Amino acid sequence: MPSIHVDRVGEMTVVECEGRFVRSDEAFRLRDVVTSQDDAHIIVLDLTEMRAIGGGGIGVLVFLQRWCRDHDIRFKLFNPSRSVQERLENTNAMSEFNIASLDEMMALLGQADRRYALAS
Asked: In Å, what is the CA distance from 80 to each residue of 11, 37, 64, 89?
């Protein structure tokens, strides 16, 4: 059973996805979780533990990219597993996404944490 965990650091939301997202209901759950973060300035999907993604899941990722753009939210994928990255490449969806490096993620977390600390 796939799981989704949300961490909020200041104006950044990190959505951790774990398991196999191959059925439509799993993809729709991910869509609903991400679109509920409409007050975030940055949304990062951590795909480290996502073991597989189906066509519906890829469609949801493309939808989320566009939804974030329409809501002036930066959308990034982080550390897609090898199987997920291959699936994205095989469907020519890789060019749609901004994949954050580890260094970029550390910088984003540092910025979000500093802003959050200043606001408190």
From this structure: 23, 21, 16, 11
CATH number reported for the structural domain that contains residue 57 in this entry: 3.30.750.24
Domain range for 63 is 3-119
Could you report how far apart the first and last alpha carbons of the chain are, in Å? 37
Residue pLDDT, tens place only, 40-68? 999 999 999 999 999 999 999 999 999 99
**Residue from 109, 96, 91, 103 nearest 69 by CA:** 96
pTM of the complete model: 0.88
**Which of 74, 68, 80, 93 has its CA nearest to residue 17?**
80
Total domains in the fold of the chain: 1
The Cα 78–Cα 50 span in angstroms is: 11
Match 């930066």 to its residue by tokens: 74
